[in-house]
Amino acid sequence: MAQAVGNRAQVYREIEQMFGRVPEWLKRMPDEVVGGFWSLYSGIDLGETKIPNKYKELIGLAVSGATRCKYCTFFHAEAARLFGATEDEIAEAAALSGVTMMASTFINAEQIDYDAFRKETLEIVKYVRDHQPKPAPAQPQARA
């Protein structure tokens, strides 16, 4: 148990360095959870990864809307703004989550055959890919 408490102190130092304080909800996490949570959260959500932070927060906002978590929705909207998302981008992410949930609810309630759905989706993707405008060939650069 002493190791978990020592770990908690280190985690708190990292959180304070990033946020200027330790949020109350993190203080309520059990010793056995807080370090692992912070490691995952700071690494994937707050860290520099392959997905830019603005997009991660818009994804977080869409997921939060779908799961109807007012805490996460508020956090991810504010974090998206912090990382440069516009109000239009935030509204679009929220709308996308609603459209996705609507389609998901309908498809699951209708018990659409997954293999047929998968096959049809792959055919649609191939059709769209094959009918996209081809990019113009690169023009040779003039030598100086």
Biggest beta sheet attributes: none
Oligomer: single chain
| C-alpha termini separation | 69 Å
Number of helices: 7
Instruction: Report the principal-axis shape.
Output: extended
Identify low-pLDDT runs: none
Q: What is Rg?
A: 22 Å
Helix and strand element order: HHHHHHH
Strand content: under 5%
- Protein structure class: mainly alpha
Q: What's the rounded overall pLDDT mean?
A: 92
Secondary structure: number of strands:
0
Helix content range:
over 70%
Describe this structure in words.
With 144 residues, the protein is mainly α. It contains 7 helices and no strands. The longest helix is centred in the last third of the chain and has 23 residues, at 87-109. It starts with a helix and ends in a 13-residue tail after the last helix.
Brief overview:
Helix content is 74%, strand content 0%. The protein is mostly helical.
List the helices and strands and how they pair.
Blueprint lengths: L1 H18 L4 H4 L3 H15 L7 H15 L2 H13 L4 H23 L4 H18 L13
Question: Which terms would index this structure?
Answer:
144 residues, mainly alpha, 7 helices, 74% helix, 0% strand, extended
